[in-house]
From TrEMBL:
Its main location: nucleus. The keyword Cell wall biogenesis/degradation does not apply. Pfam families: Med18. It is found in: Nucleus. This is Mediator of RNA polymerase II transcription subunit 18. Belongs to the Mediator complex subunit 18 family. Component of the Mediator complex. It comes from Trametes pubescens. Keywords: Activator, Nucleus, Transcription, Transcription regulation. One of its GO terms (biological process) is regulation of transcription by RNA polymerase II. It comes from the Eukaryota. InterPro entries: Mediator_Med18. Component of the Mediator complex, a coactivator involved in the regulated transcription of nearly all RNA polymerase II-dependent genes. Mediator functions as a bridge to convey information from gene-specific regulatory proteins to the basal RNA polymerase II transcription machinery. Mediator is recruited to promoters by direct interactions with regulatory proteins and serves as a scaffold for the assembly of a functional preinitiation complex with RNA polymerase II and the general transcription factors.
Length: 166
């Protein structure tokens, strides 16, 4: 994978923080290795309590593919650009999970292009369900969590996959 990602925050983000509420960030992502890739808008919502899921960070997320000007759409929705990064690494699937292993590349302020990650840059891992999961009796959320934890066991010793709240 090699993706460009732009992070937006609501225009009143500081007011929300001052009120004790963390604003919901909107992210625009475009895969650079696919010539006809479209922008994808997505957002991670507040993580569920560590008491409920101590072994992994569980958070709802919403996504939508945009045809046309995704960056302008974010602006019309009341968001302003906060930052931009590039993510370079690997994406693979295991069952219903999509696993991303990547390093963040910063952006050269003059050219807007990615600056290759330093050899010592830490690798990040994101594990998501490939399709939305509703917590029902037929498909309990615990099934997806068990699948994520199975990936963690497979990578034990290769990566430190302890929960980190960001």
């Amino acid at each position: 994978m090699h993706a460009r990602e732009i992070v937006f925050e609501p225009f009143d983000a500081q007011h929300q923080r001052d009120s004790g509420t963390e604003p919901v960030l909107l992210r625009a992502r475009k895969e650079l290795l696919e010539p006809d890739a479209k922008w994808l808008l997505y957002s991670y919502l507040k993580p569920e309590s560590v008491r409920v899921h101590p072994e992994a960070t569980v958070r709802p997320w919403a996504t939508c593919q945009v045809v046309g000007e995704a960056l302008e759409l974010a602006s019309v929705l009341g968001y302003v650009r906060r930052s931009q990064i590039y993510k370079k690494g690997y994406v693979f699937r295991r069952g219903n999970l999509v696993i991303q292993m990547f390093q963040q590349e910063h952006v050269d302020p003059k050219t807007g292009k990615a600056i290759p990650a330093h050899v010592d840059t830490l690798w990040e891992v994101e594990v998501k369900t490939a399709a939305p999961v509703r917590n029902t009796q037929e498909t309990p959320l615990s099934q997806s969590l068990d699948a994520v934890l199975a990936v963690q066991l497979l990578m034990k010793g290769l990566l430190d996959l302890r929960r980190q709240d960001v």
